[in-house]
Amino acid sequence: MIIGVPKEIKNNENRVSLTPGGALELIRRGHRVLVQHDAGRNSGLPDEIYEKQGCEILPTIEDVYKNAEMIIKVKEPIEQEYDLIQPNQLVFTYFHFASHEPLTKAMIKSDAICLAYETVKDSKGGLPLLIPMSEVAGRMSIQAGASYLEMPHKGRGILLGGVPGVQPAHVLILGGGVVGTQAAKMAAGLGAKVTILDINLDRLRYLADILPANVTTLYSNEYNIRNLVKSHDLIIGAVLIPGAKAPNLVTRDMLKTMRPGAVLVDVAVDQGGCIETCKPTTHADPTFVIDDIVHYCVANMPGAVPYTSTVALTNATLPFAIQLAEKGWKKACTENAALKEGLNVVNGKVVYKAVANAFDLEYSNVDDVLA
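The structure corresponding to this sequence follows.
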């Protein structure tokens, strides 16, 4: 199979979808890997390293899309890429369709096969291709939050961990999944007082066992959230419903009850966000202020640490990419239930129910397109 690795062109997206080591594994199996010039440079991976592994370096993004059978990306295609995608071309990347109707309709029109990292689901219900970036984003959410609590960034002017004789910051984390757990570990490690909410009691029991004493677990409901936002300095949105838009847990009216200079970090913003007033921002312009509350809503947080993120992502995606290259998408998805869950749009048909429901689109059963 001919595999294309285009350079990411989303604002301040510095990751690349495949490391030279990952490319070598595909080349060893007889596949061709086409890498756009400088695709890996911002991740510390220049063209020369890819060439040494046998990759072909192409000058433009158009060349990569034109010649590849499978495109491996990091982020969803942006508008400039829509017309480059070809019918029957397999695009393997993060799509987050349910929060982006224009992208969904463009991919339907493209007649391509869109296999989304974020909905690939294993037999235990885990999301193996989302986990590594969730781990990065969860940890980064606390770094970002701690920074934006500083007065020069319009925050409350409070040190996350405090000092002897001074109370630490209070951190509220909405969601006890991978993002929330990593955020809690980081915040607790810095000395903050942490409260983590979830609706799964088994998960709360697990978190209570593994997290340190300065972390409190609490059942998530509107009553608790409304009370807690009043007294917390940093609030992390860490809610994910696979393939669907996240619910709004922090509403606009709650902002007026919060401490001026408190910080909201919505890690779920690329899936619609769980904070009503959040909208996607970029690393170039990461924050905005509403009702004296600082909002940090960067949709590609791991892009700020591209080397770590690129290696972590390739570690997770490569086994699936190999299967797709070896067997073709249809056979691979038929034989691997996890990959089948990743199919969202196939040859103009929406085959993931949550995406169809998000925009009232016609839904087609995935088994029918695989038949």
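The domain at 136-304 is CATH 3.40.50.720 (Rossmann fold).
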